[in-house]
C-alpha cells in the first residue's frame, strides 16, 4: 500500500512538458444533411466542401416535432473521403467531428456579427435518408427497412 501511495502524483505536484499548450475547441454533431454537399474553389485553388447539418434538440411538442439547430460545416477532405462526402444525399444521418471557431465580422448593414465556423476533421455516414412511405400510415419507414440500412465503407452510396 505504501508503494502505491508514493507512486501516485501528489496534489501539489506539477507536470512539465516541452511542447507548447494547444487550444482546443472541438464539436461533435449527429444530425441530418440539409442538402447534398457542394464543392467551392478557394482563392488559393483548393476545393472546400460546404454543407449544413440539422441537429434535433429538446423534447417533442404537441405535434410531435422537435426543435432543430442548424450548423454550417466546411471540409477540405480529399480522395475517397471527398468522393464519399459528395455522394451523400440530403437527409443522410451523419456523425461529424469538427474544430470550432468563433469569428467576428462586420455585416453589410454595418452591424458587428459573430459566426460559428466548423471545420470538419472526421465524419461518418450513419444511415441513409428517411424515405416517406406510401402506406396508410403516411409516416417514415421503419429503421429495419433495407433502404435505411447504415452505410459502410468508403464506396457505399
TrEMBL record:
Organism listed in the record: Cladosporium halotolerans
InterPro entries named in the record: NA-bd_OB-fold, Primosome_PriB/ssb
CDD domains (UniProt xref): SSB_OBF
Region feature (Disordered): 126-157
Gene3D superfamilies to which the protein is assigned, alphabetical: Nucleic acid-binding proteins
SUPFAM superfamilies, per the entry: Nucleic acid-binding proteins (SSF50249)
GO terms, molecular function: single-stranded DNA binding
Protein's recorded name: SsDNA binding protein
Keywords, alphabetical: DNA-binding
Amino acid at each position: 500500500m505504501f508503494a502505491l501511495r508514493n507512486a501516485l502524483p501528489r496534489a501539489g505536484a506539477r507536470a512539465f512538458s516541452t511542447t507548447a499548450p494547444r487550444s482546443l475547441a472541438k464539436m461533435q454533431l449527429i444530425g441530418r444533411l440539409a442538402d447534398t454537399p457542394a464543392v467551392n474553389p478557394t482563392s488559393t485553388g483548393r476545393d472546400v466542401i460546404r454543407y449544413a447539418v440539422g441537429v434535433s434538440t429538446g423534447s417533442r411538442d404537441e405535434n410531435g416535432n422537435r426543435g432543430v439547430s442548424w450548423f454550417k460545416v466546411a471540409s477540405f477532405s480529399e480522395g475517397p473521403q471527398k468522393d464519399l462526402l459528395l455522394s451523400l444525399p440530403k437527409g443522410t444521418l451523419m456523425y461529424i467531428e469538427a474544430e470550432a471557431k468563433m469569428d467576428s465580422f462586420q455585416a453589410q448593414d454595418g452591424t458587428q456579427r459573430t459566426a460559428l465556423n466548423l471545420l470538419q476533421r472526421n465524419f461518418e455516414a450513419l444511415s441513409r435518408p428517411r424515405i416517406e412511405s406510401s402506406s396508410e400510415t403516411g409516416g417514415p419507414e421503419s429503421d429495419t427497412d433495407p433502404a435505411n440500412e447504415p452505410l459502410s465503407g468508403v464506396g457505399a452510396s
